[in-house]
Amino acid sequence: MPLTRLLQTTFAVFLIAISLIPTWASAEKTIHRASEGASLAQSPQKTRQTTEPTATATGARTNAPLRAAKDRPPRRAKAHTASPRPARKTAARAANHLSAASAKGQAPAKANAVEKARKAKQGLNTNTAAASAAGSTAVAITTSFATDTARPGPLLAIKTSARMPRQETGPAYATRADAMRFADDVADRRGLDRAWVRQAIGQANLLPVVVRLMAPSPAGTPKNWRAYRGRFIDAYRINAGTAFWEVNQPWLEKAEREFGVPAEIIVGIVGVETIYGQQTGHFRVMDALTTLAFDFPASHPRATERTAYFRGELEQALSLAHRSGLDPLSLKGSYAGAMGWPQFMPSSWQQHAIDYDRDGKVDLFDSQADVIGSVANYFKAYGWERGLPTHYPVNLDTTRLDKDALLAPDILPTFSVASFTAKGGVLDFPGLGHSGLLALVELQNGADVPSYVAGTQNFYVITRYNQSSYYAMAVIELGREVKAAMNR
Ligand SMILES: [Ca+2]
User: Fold this and answer.
1) Which of 100, 324, 350, 415 is the most core-located residue (most Cβ within 10 A)?
2) 214 with 297: CB under 8 angstroms?
3) Mean pLDDT, all residues of the chain
4) Does 370 share its domain with 395?
């Protein structure tokens, strides 16, 4: 009966083939999703992180007190535990604010491009202006940010980085003798494994876009406060700010009570930095910092100083990753290596970030409480004075004005009220009653007449976050606008 057997065999094969079709289809779908994920995440590593356990477990093992995030609750659940019970109605209102904002479509991506250009022109975020000396604070970064800096924060359901283009990358630094020498130095200095440090730096890629963004602005580029202000203070950011404030009011009040830093200043910082967690950066921190440490644009007037700074930050990033049991290459941030909602540089994270919600880890990516506490702690460390205004209105009396003298110290408060007045600064109350020192802050308006304010110590402290009076004023005014919107 060979023919019958042949027919039976053929039929059986046919049945098996039919039964496999759904499996093939399913497998194909899975593959499609995986490749889509890679595309969205911009790096194969990121795709791996979404499917594999990360270095979390290592962190838990090597740093027992610093619990890792493997048992991290779902994002939304965490949002509620992180904040001391925001009212349901408030949270819903916050979500509505953001839904309305997200309906603007491309706005976040567009804003991101503008912000990058802005930061390139206005100078680097220097929230680590402090010495980059080794921090000794125990730090745990949750692994969550390593896998999803691109994802929205707990209460901000807007994906922005999905639209980011794939980065142009140059060669890896493994072949660069200077980078490998540095790796050995860092390893020896900090007692780290040479191979581990070499691998971390060696796998970092030169990012040409980072070099371009660091290039100095063309000489003679007029500054324009009104244009600058317009980039940061608009309905979209104010709405996101009120949502952030409403949800985090208890934490903001606690921080104000404990550190003396008003809620509106913290709200202003987080808004200007990342639009409340929407733009925490999609660069691998190792790529950004290694590029800036070894290929900082030589045309920059402070190239030597900046190179030293970024080498310090690179070392801090390695230290931070090691302490947390993380793969340094998994850290994501801005093109300058700043991370999380408040865009802390690695040394700032080491020195000033705190576990404000006391869940055992410092998390500036997923804990808004930690973000708030850390920003307040940063300002206090740089000399924030409780109750002191950031600035006063000022007019200039041209009959006795010595503007050169008043502008010479730049934003460093230098003049007593008497001295300030003698040089032509005209204050009103409450400025006239100010007991500390003042700085004349000039904000240019392109071809128009500049704006002036009398900056206090607290204005100066804001510039320790980013050394720009335009930045400080944007933070102050965004905070004020959000506060006004809260009271409407
Ligand atoms: Ca925490």
Assistant:
1) 324
2) yes
3) 76
4) no
* 228, 272: one domain: yes
What confidence score (pLDDT) does residue 148 get? 28
146 C-alpha to ligand 1 centroid (Å) = 16
Cα of 369 to ligand 1 centre, how many Å? Answer: 7
Distance CA 450, CA 440 (A): 12
Same domain, 314 and 362: yes
Domain finish residue from 340, 363, 381: 381
Catalytic pick among 115, 273, 315, 481: 273
Closest CA to 65 of 365, 363, 361: 361
- Of 29, 26, 34, nearest to 50 by C-alpha is 34
Q: How far is the CA of 275 from the centre of ligand 1 (A)?
A: 21
Least confident segment among 149-153, 231-235, 469-473: 149-153
Residue 331 and residue 451 in one domain: no
Question: Contact at 8 Å (CB) between 164 and 42?
Answer: yes
Are 376 and 412 in the same domain? Answer: no
Closest CA to 394 of 378, 415, 380: 415
Considering the domain boundaries, does residue 344 fall inside one? Answer: yes
If asked whether residues 111 and 142 sit together in one domain, one would say: yes
DSSP state of 336: T
Give the distance (Å) from ligand 1 centre to CA of residue 360.
6
* Cα-trace Rg, the chain: 26
Strands 332-333 and 439-445: unpaired
Per cent of the chain over pLDDT 70 is 66
Average pLDDT on 234-252 reads 98
- Identify whether 67 is part of a domain: no
Which of 332, 360, 381 delimits the end of a domain? 381
What are 62-105's pLDDT values in tens digits?
222 222 333 333 333 333 333 433 443 444 444 434 433 333 33
- Confidence band, pLDDT 50/70/90 cuts, at residue 4: low
Residues 116 and 246 in one domain: yes
CATH of the domain at 415: 1.10.530.10
Q: Which domain holds residue 473?
A: 391-487
Are 265 and 367 within one domain? yes
246 catalytic? Reply is no
Compute the distance from residue 154 Cα to the ligand 1 centre, in Å.
14
Query: How many domains is the chain partitioned into structurally?
Result: 2
